[in-house]
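Hi R.,

Here's the chain you asked about this morning:
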Amino acid sequence: MQLTSLDDADALGATIPCRAFDPEVFFAETPEDVEYAKSLCGTCPVKEACLAGALDRREPWGVWGGELFVQGVVVARKRPRGRPRKTEVMA
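And here is the predicted structure, written out as tokens:
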């Protein structure tokens, strides 16, 4: 069942991952931690409402509604720090 607000979820006693887990995980730095946070959102009953709200607010960063926001835009994957090589390196 998809709920439309945190108040609805609270009234039904639904588990909201961002309230049940350390909130820092939803603002993680490593790609692995970001993917973990996104996976936690998979079972959230307010996932769609969370994503819609984040899009409306143009959230600057973090995982919202199962999507990663960077500078107010949804991106598919978090890239690791550092610059990619310009040329292939022979291994």
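One quick note: The two ends are 50 Å apart (CA to CA).

Cheers,
M.
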